[in-house]
Amino acid sequence: MHNFDGGMLKYSKVTAPLEGEYFVKKRFYDAFIYTELDYLLINLGIKILICVGFLVDDCLFFTLYEAYVHNYKVVLLRDCMFAFEMNDDNYIKNRTRTKHHIETVEIFIGHTATSEEFIESCKNL
Asked: Is there a smaller number of Cβ atoms within 10 Å at the N or the C end of the chain?
């Protein structure tokens, strides 16, 4: 795997793709624009996306929105994401921007749950 300047991409052991896993290189703000993600998901028969990540007010938000536009059901795990909080202790402590964007996702895009709720729902399948 290479980045744009030809160098190798580096991953932590925790997030590195495992042998045989699919890898879609994100090239823009969201994971759908200029990638093969939609094609891959369609061919795998995937209709529901469980989403986590950083910057729900930027990259993650745009990926969630594009997933919605592409007719996927979206579930955002509220305790597995974060927004860029203002450089103010009250914003960071209260997660003000993060909470605002969670509400935006719930109103306009899809569902949210905690990771614990998600794990419990998987046990009941």
From this structure: C
